[in-house]
C-alpha cells in the first residue's frame, strides 16, 4: 500500500492479540467499543442515558444534523461529529479530510448547502508536529474543495496514556433551501431506494491498511463531499423524501433507522447491491457483512418511484454518482424491518448492527 499506511505491521500475518471485540454483551456496566459503533448499542446509550439526563433540554428529533428555523423563514442545518480513525492516514485519505467531508455530508443529507465549519483537535502528548501538520493541511485542502470556511476552533493536549495520536471534532452550519423537507420519517410504501455507488469501500480501505492485508488491488477510501451531488438531485425538482450517508453501521444501520422512523418495510434485491469484488472478498475473509461496513462518500436516497429514473440520471451525470443504482423499495409489509431478496428466491433479515464490526473506522 506504499506510504498511504502509516507505521503498520507487515502483511506476513494478522496480530489477533491486538484486536478488540466491537460487539460485546449488551448488559454491561461500563462503556465498551460497541457503544460507539452507530448500531443498537449506540441507540440504547442515547435513549436510556443521554436523553433522560438531558430532560427537557433535549431536541425532539435526533439525526445527523438538526434543521433550525431562524427568524421567519431562514432554516439552518447544524451538525457536529468526532473522528478517531486508526490509522490516521489510509489509502485515499486521512483523518483530516474525513472530518471535513463527514460533517459536510451530514449537513448535505438535510439538503443544506454547507457554509461554515469549526475544528477542535485533541492531541496526545508526543504526537509529532510533522504528523499534525499533514492532518491540518488535509483539513484545509478538503475545506477549500468543499467550498466551506473554517471559522473557529480549539486545541487540547492530553497525557500520553490518555489518548492516541490525534482526535478531531468538526461542527458545521449550512442553509436549507426553501421547500426542501428531507427527513428519515418521510419514506413511504412504493418509494425507490437508491445508492450513489459502490458500498463498503471506506471500511475495507482502513481495515486493510490497519492489518496489512493485501487483496490483489489497493482499496481506497471513498471519502468525498456529497453536497454537490445532492444539489444535482434536488435540481430535478423531485421531492426527495430521505437522504442518508451510511457511515458507522453502514447501509444496514441507515436503512433500519429509516424503516423504524417511517414505519415502513424496506426490501432490497441482493443481486443489485453494488459491492465491488475487492470489498466482497475482504469481507468474506474477515467474516464481515458488507452492508454493515462504513462508507464515507456514498449516499442513500429514498424518492418516489415515479421520479427514480430522473434522479438516477442526475446522479449518474455527477462525478460522485456515476455508479448510482436502485437497490430496492419501501413496502407496506414488515414495517420497521429491512429484508433482502436472495438469488435463490428467499429472503433474509438485514438487522440493525449491535455495535460496529470494525472499531475506529471513522
From TrEMBL:
SUPFAM superfamilies on file: PurM C-terminal domain-like, PurM N-terminal domain-like
Gene3D superfamilies in UniProt: PurM-like C-terminal domain, PurM-like, N-terminal domain
Superkingdom of this protein's organism: Bacteria
Cross-referenced InterPro entries: HypE, PurM-like_C_dom, PurM-like_C_sf, PurM-like_N, PurM-like_N_sf
NCBIfam families: hypE
Protein name: Hydrogenase expression/formation protein HypE
Domain PurM-like N-terminal, first and last residues per copy: 64-176
Entry similarity comment: Belongs to the HypE family.
Amino acid at each position: 500500500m506504499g506510504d498511504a499506511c502509516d507505521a503498520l505491521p507487515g502483511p506476513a500475518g494478522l496480530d489477533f492479540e491486538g484486536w478488540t471485540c466491537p460487539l460485546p454483551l449488551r448488559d454491561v456496566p461500563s462503556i465498551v467499543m460497541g457503544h460507539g459503533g452507530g448500531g443498537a448499542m449506540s441507540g440504547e446509550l442515547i435513549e436510556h442515558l443521554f436523553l433522560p439526563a438531558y430532560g427537557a433540554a433535549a431536541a425532539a428529533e435526533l439525526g445527523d444534523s438538526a434543521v433550525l428555523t431562524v427568524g421567519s423563514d431562514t432554516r439552518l442545518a447544524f451538525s457536529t461529529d468526532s473522528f478517531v480513525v486508526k490509522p490516521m492516514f489510509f489509502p485515499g485519505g486521512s483523518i483530516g479530510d474525513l472530518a471535513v467531508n463527514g460533517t459536510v455530508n451530514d449537513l448535505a443529507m438535510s439538503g443544506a448547502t454547507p457554509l461554515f465549519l469549526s475544528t477542535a483537535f485533541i492531541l496526545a502528548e508526543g504526537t509529532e508536529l510533522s504528523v499534525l501538520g499533514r492532518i491540518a493541511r488535509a483539513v484545509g485542502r478538503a475545506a477549500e474543495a468543499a467550498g466551506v470556511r473554517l471559522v473557529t476552533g480549539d486545541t487540547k493536549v492530553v497525557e500520553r496514556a490518555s489518548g492516541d495520536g490525534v482526535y478531531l471534532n468538526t461542527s458545521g452550519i449550512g442553509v436549507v433551501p426553501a421547500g426542501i423537507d428531507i427527513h428519515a420519517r418521510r419514506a413511504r410504501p412504493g418509494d425507490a431506494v437508491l445508492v450513489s455507488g459502490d458500498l463498503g469501500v471506506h471500511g475495507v480501505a482502513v481495515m486493510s491498511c490497519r492489518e496489512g492485508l493485501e487483496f490483489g488491488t489497493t482499496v481506497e477510501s471513498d471519502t468525498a463531499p456529497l453536497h454537490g451531488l445532492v444539489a444535482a438531485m434536488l435540481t430535478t425538482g423531485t421531492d426527495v423524501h430521505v437522504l442518508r450517508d451510511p457511515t458507522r453501521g453502514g447501509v444496514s444501520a441507515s436503512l433500519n433507522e429509516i424503516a423504524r422512523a417511517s414505519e415502513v418495510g424496506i426490501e432490497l434485491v441482493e443481486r443489485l447491491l453494488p459491492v465491488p469484488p475487492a470489498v466482497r472478498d475482504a469481507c468474506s475473509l474477515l467474516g464481515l457483512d458488507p452492508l454493515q461496513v462504513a462508507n464515507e462518500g456514498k449516499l442513500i436516497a429514498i424518492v418516489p418511484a415515479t421520479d427514480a429514473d430522473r434522479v438516477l440520471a442526475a446522479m449518474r451525470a455527477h462525478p460522485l454518482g456515476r455508479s448510482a443504482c436502485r437497490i430496492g423499495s419501501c413496502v407496506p409489509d414488515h414495517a420497521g424491518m429491512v429484508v433482502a431478496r436472495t438469488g435463490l428466491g428467499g429472503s433474509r433479515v438485514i438487522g440493525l448492527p449491535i455495535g460496529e464490526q470494525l472499531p475506529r473506522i471513522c
